[in-house]
Each structure stands twice: as structure tokens, then as C-alpha cells.
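Hi there. Long-time user, first ticket. I'm pasting a complex I've been working with (about 998 residues overall). I'd like to know whether the download I got is complete or cut off, because the file seemed smaller than I expected. Thanks.
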Amino acid sequence: MTSDTFLAKSSTNLPPYDSGKSARYIFLRTLKDNFPLGVLLFALEFLTQPFAIYINNIFTHDASLGNPLHNKWSIYQSLRSTFTSSIVPLLFIIGVILVVRILGYIHQNVQIDLWHSLPIKREKLFLSKLGGLSVILLVPHLLVMVWSGALVGFTGQFSSYAKAYIQHWTLGTLAVIAGLSMLIYIFMRFGTTSDSIIGTLGLFVAWPIMVLLYSTVMIEIIPGITFENFANNHLFLHITYLFSPLPAFWTGNSIWPYWLILTIICIIGSTIAYKRRKSEYAETLVSSHPFYYVLRTIATITGGLGLSYIMGLNASLPSALLGIVLGSILIHCIVEMIVARGVKTLVRSLIGYVISLVILTLLLVAVLFDLFGFTRFSPTPAQLEKVIVTSAYWDSPIPSIKLTPDQDAAIIENLNEMNRKSINSQRGKMGAFQIGFTPNYDIDDKFINQTVDLTYVMTDGKIVQRQFTYNIDLSQESLSQVVTTPPLKYIFMNKEILREISPENCQLYNTNDYYWYEDQSDHLVNLSQTQMQELLNLIADDDLERMIGDNPEEFAEARSEAPEPTIISMDKIESTEDNPIYTLVIPKQNIVAALGKYAATEGDHDIYKESIGEYQDLNPDPYKTPPWGYEVQNENDQRYEIYIDRFSTQAYEYLQAINQQ
Amino acid sequence: MKTTIPYQKLDGNQSWTAPVTRERYNDDLTASEADARIQSRHLVKNFGKKTALNIEYSQILGSSIYGLVGPNGAGKTTYLRTLSGIYRPDAGTCEMDGQSIWENPEIKSQILFLPDQPAFLPRTTLLDMKRFYQGIYNRFNHNVYRELLETFGLDEKTKLKTFSKGMMRQAALCLVIAAQPKLLLLDEAFDGLDPVMRRALRRILSQLILDHEMTVVISSHNLRELEDLCDYVGVLHNGNMIIEQDLDSLKLGICRIQVAWTKALDIQQLQRLGLNIVDYSRQGSVLHLIISGDRDEITHTLRTTNPLLLEALPLTLEEIFLQTMEVNGYDIRHILG
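Hi, the file is complete. Here it is re-exported in full:
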């Protein structure tokens, strides 16, 4: 080496240092280093959506389904479902990998020496890397969306399907971006990558599980409360959605303006946190971080609720309490040992455990005494616009009925009184409900439809839902006062519907084989119409029960899997060759026809659907919803299954097309 | 049989044990503040409750090699990381050419830090890293890089993770030297290099200072390496800069004396003569003294006692360092083996 070489460069006049050039270089370098992941993301998304749909279309194309509207709808449905179930998780996972790859250096002392000695301001360095991350993640994702959108849009003119898909895509993408932004912020706050991931999981997973468990405990203990009360209105669940964009998206609770704001806040917060972050924070443990204390408390409460739920459900108070203590201490110690990388801090952390236990106890006391006031709800006629009474069984053929204060004030009051009695019958000492996690009813009745959803539509526009199951004693005492109208009679005593059914529409199947419904013809039992009528009468009169035996819990459950909509089975009766089990299959349209005159309007039914969390996304016009659109048949005897759900607008359009053929 | 009395520790001279202050600096160091390229004032860096660095005053002159010496945990790496802008000082200032280093890209573009464990981008080759440095540092000199590559005999297309520790250090040296910084910070620079490469590095560093007016700061435990290389030395102990001096002054400021008399004098008698005795031992009738101060003045004073034997010997940097640290109650012999 000669000194001439060194001198040569030192005599050159160099331009002043430009940190912007360095930032651009780091941005491009980030793109280059992570390009393969971008390609992988594109390939996986492409295989999941455009390619899969194309292949699926080839192999499942049915000439009889040649209606382009139908195809477009199928493509839309496929895009929508694969986006929700596959693309969103995939995007999030690749995003997490990118965050770890691109920003993981802040958790490594050696890498910190390299990056933080560079002549570039911290925020510029961070934003350059974040820019690279965003491009690698979003450009392939956007390309696939355009391609997929084109699949829908170019099959005809740009229609509401393509628009709906883009809306859905935007919501899902925003949810992922919001989730990743939170991860990035946590990354900036924690000392190690593993702690950051644990922290994020704690926030995304532990909190929703805790809320779910707590809601479940409430449902089990407090009479009348159903999950829908939490799905629609409950504060805890809304907080969950605030913390967890992906579950919010998956459950149809998209709040895109919030996600947008959350993303902006997280990115600004991350930039500030990064700028202030000390380099020496790398590789330090998080066990003394306040944020960690919150997460540990949530995890501890979740553990206590979880194990007490497992041990205490249908059991006694002592086992439930044992589950609380064991579950919470177990999770507390595991979390503490993982985060502190050892047992050194375990004893000291017991103070935190005691605090968690106190919070958990208070939460349970709040449930036992219903401090949230769920059971105090009993609207006066003046507060009510109407009550929609619906069989709680999800596939019940019985339509909802409507009670109005003007016409049915006495019935509503009787219902409320019956509910109050049901609630009070379950109170123990000091008015507390039982902690044994027993069901909120003690039913020994043979008909499923005695569990009823009550949808209270209030004059101020609020909708409150309650669910009660009336036991046989209660019904004997007061049911006669309540059941004064035919619709209510059908709701509470569904066996009466059997009297309305024409025997020629009934078929009887032998259900010895569990898979009978896959090949029904082999299991069909031939009965004459007279015999069938006799059978129906026997069931309706309960004579069949007497004939079959002394202890059947018959008519337990309608089978949703059956090709015909409604089945009343006797599946708990032991079957022998001499005494075979029969399942009575009753065509649903007959039931609907028999009860149609009592049915609530579609609008009423739609309110009920909304109250249990449906119709969130597309908000279809309820009056366009095909009535009970389970199954339709066109003039060429082609049958299609259509379900009333969030796609009901599309279902309606499709039905219109079929009707016009 | 000759009896040996081990070295006795005396109360250290205040000028040796107290942290370097601005006032003291003017007395100790011949260079003026105007020549200082790097200046640290009241510099404090805490890690939690522990104070890792507490430097009252320190300065590093331009176009020189500054040796940063201290036992493990003294704060050498922390100081280098602060100088390179990786660590933000909790208090005080750290400046280069009168400008704060922290979050100052213009200044940081002239500083390169080679840590004890060189950092590279994951899964890269030396060629990738060269492109990275070229993208960031506009002074990067391809020719220098090529020559260093040949000197060290490295293959730039091999994955860096397959390199040995020494090769990684050589690779990192190629990069940071080719980036031609004004201030080069080397943490344990000679660690992992074989003797040939060490010699080559010394030559390169000397040449860089000559050709580029570069300032080099080297931290090392290997005091012999620094002795022949450094112009200045700073000794860190428990985060305090207890010595900062040019090497010649340092060596001249303390000496070893062998002295014998027909009638032996005791230490108190010698101290009454005004001698600043740091340490002493006795071998038979010969007294071995380590005395702080000007060598000529010391020998002149001792001659007044009419010794039979009087011999003044220079101390190596390692001996000076050992003495200094021992005076501060630090078992440096154990650290250095």
C-alpha cells in the first residue's frame, strides 16, 4: 500500500454529506434485502385467490349454472371467503416476519452498533426502513387485489360485487396494517424481539380470551344473558375490538376510521419512541416494564377464569374457587418465568399476583350480584315499541312473532313476570346467583322451543336481547296465562305444529346408520298416508312417548345437516333390530305454510337478525331478503341452497335472476 | 540469602488518582484546547442505577492516535459508543470540532466505529457490505478498499458468517478504513489478529494519520500494542478518566529508581526530601522505588543522599498502568494475567 493512494482521495473535493441520500439508500436496501419475501407473499396470495378461483371454475363449472350473475356471485363469494380466512392471516404473518427482519436490529446489541452509528437521524432511519417494509408488504397485496377484482369486475360490467370485494379488501388490509402498527409500537417499547412478540400476543390473544371467558361465565351465571348481549353492546368486547383489529374484522365489527387513526397514532408513536429509545435498551428484559404488568395481570385473570370454568362448570363452588386460584397462579408463574428468563423474580412478583387475584375476585363478585344490571332490565309498555319473540333454536322453522304494547300489553307483562320469576328462582344467599356455573335454567322438558329469544325494540331505537328457557313447572304455573295466542303457543309448544302438517309431505327414515342422511333412499321407511297421519297424531298427543317407554328425552334436536330442513329425531332412545329408531322428517315449507299467518314481518325478523349480530357488512335492504330463503327451485327443477346471511343482497339478486328465467 | 520485601502501596499522589478536570488538564497536557478535535465535558452515561461513565473532561487531539486503557467494565466501550453517537449522554456534552455528535449526521459521517464484535448485515458478503458503506459514506474509497482487501487476502464474495473472528475483524477494518473517516474508533482493534496482521494494521493506521489527518482512538487491554502506537493515552477506571496524557509526558512523569546506601535510609526520610514515592520494595540493601515526577529532578535529589548505587530506569506503559490502577486499589495484575 502506498500513501499516494490515500492522498489521492483526500485531495478530491467531496460534496457535503447528504443524509437524505443515505435514507434513500437504506429504503432501497430494505426493498432489495426483503424482495424475496414480497415475491413469496405475491405467490401465496396469487395461488390462494386468482389461480385457485380459475382452477376451481374449470373443474366445478356446471353448464346448468351458466348464468353469468351466478358465476360472478360465486367468484365474489370465493374471493371474499378466501380473503377473510387466508389472505388476511397470511398478510399479517408475512408482516410480522418483515417487522422482525427489518426492525429486529433494535433488539440486538451488535446490530445496534452498526445502524445507530450511521450518519442519519434516528427518525429518518426508522421511516426509511418502515417505508421499505410497507412497499414490500403492500405492493404484492395490491397487485393481487387488482387481479382478483378484475376477475369479478371483468366478467360483466364493474358491478356491486367488485365494489363490495374492494370494500372488503380495504377493511381487511386496514385491520392488518393497524395490527402491525401496534406490533411495531410494542417493538419500540420492548427490549427483545421475543418479548415484543409475547407482548403482542398477550394483547391480541390474552385479552380477547379473557373477555370471552368472562362473558361466558356471565352467560352461565346470569339468567337471560346470551353471547349476543356481548357481541353487540358489551363494553369489554368493544375494548377487545379496539385492541384486536383482526378479530374485529373477522367478526364483522370493522371500524375502519378507528383503524386508520390507530395506524397513524402507532406510527407517530413508534417514531417518537424510536427517537427517544436508548440504544442500550437492546437485549434488556421487559420484566419491569409497566406495560408488562398489565399484560401479566390480564394473562393471570385469563388463567384463573379458564381453569375455574373447566373445573367449576356443572360442579361446586369449592372446585370453581380452586380452579381460580390454581389457574391464575399457574399462568402468573409461567408468564413471569418466561419474561424474566428464570425464577429470580418469582417471589417478588407475588405482590402482582395478589393484585390480579383481587381484581379477579371483584370481577366474579360483580357477576354473582349482577352489578352490571342485566337482570334489572324489564321495560314498561311505555318504553317499548315491540317485542319480537323467536325460538332460540337457530334452525327453527317457526317464524318470529311480534308483540306490541298496544295490543299485547298483558302478554308482555306476563312474559316479563315469568322472566323475573325465572331470575329470582336462581338467586341464593344475599341475592347472589350460584357460582357453580350451573345453567341458568333447569329444564326437563322435551321440546327445544321452550328456549326463547326476546328482542325488545325500544321507543328510543335501542334493541335489547334476552334469552329465557322456561322450565316445565314454571310453564305449568304460568304458561297458560302467557300462551293466549296461537303464535305463542307454537313458540312454546312446538308439538302443536305436527297437527298442521300434511302426511303426504312426510317421510320416515331409519336412522340406525349415523350417516343415513348421506343416502336416504336406503333408509327410507314406507308408510301409508294413513299410517303417517296416525304417527303425527301420536307424536302430537304424546302417545308415542308413552308407547316408546318411560324415560325418553325425545325430540331433542333438529338436525341441521339433513337435506330436508327440519327433522325431529328420537336419537336418545336405544335402538335394536326389533325396536328401530325412526326420525321424522318434516319438510320445512309445510311448517312455514302452516304458521305463515302468524309470522312477523321480514322487517321484524331482520331486527332480530341484527340483534344477534348478522347483517353487519353489506346492510342489505331487509325487504329484499327472500322469505326464509333456504332452498329454491327454478322451473327447470334446478335446486339451489340460499342462506339468509350477510350475502342476502346477492341472494336476492340471484333469486330475481332465477325468477326471470 | 537475599530477602525481598514486596512493594508497599503508599497513598497515591493526588494528581494520579483524582479524575481529570479541565483545570488539571492545562497543567498535565501540553496541547492546548484549540487543538482538540474531540471534547467531552461533564459526560455522564448511566445504565439504570449504575453510572458507567462519568468523565469530567477529556479531549482527543486531531491527527493522533489516542489509546483508551482500562480494565473490564471501566467504561471504554461505553465511551467509544458515546463518541460514535450510538449512546446518548445522560448529562454533559460530547463534541467533535465544536459540534455535538449526538444526532448530528454531518458530524457522524466523519466518524466510524469498529466495535469489539464487528457488525454486518445478516446473510451478506463483504461485497454487499462494501456497497452498503458506499451507499452511506460519500468518502468511501474503492481503491483503498481494494488494497486493504489484498493486504488481508480476503474474498469479498464469501458469506461473512463463514469468516473466522480474525477475518471478520479484517473485513470490518477494510470497510471502516476505506470509508475514510476523520475519526476512527477501534474497540479492541488488535483482538483476533495474528502478529503479521497486527503489524500491517499498525502501519496502515500510521499512514492514515499521515496522509489523511485522521484521528484514531483505540481501546485495548494490550498495553504493549498501544505503547509503540499511541501519541496519547487515557486511562478509564470505574467510568472516570483518571489519566489523560501524552505518552512521552506520562513516561517521563514517573520512573523506577534502584538505590543503595552504606547506611540505608527509610521511606519517611526520602519523603521528607520531597520525593513523591508511589511504590517501593527492598531486595537486600537495594531499594527499588517508583517515584512520580521529573526523572532528572528525582536523581538530582537522591544524589544529595550520597548513594552507593543510583540508577533510573524508564517504566513501560504497562507498568505505569499497573502502578496507577494499583494505587487506586484495583488488582490489575489479576486482570492482565
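A couple of notes from our side: DSSP finds 14 helices and 15 strands in chain B. Chain B touches chain A through 41 residues (CB under 8 Å).
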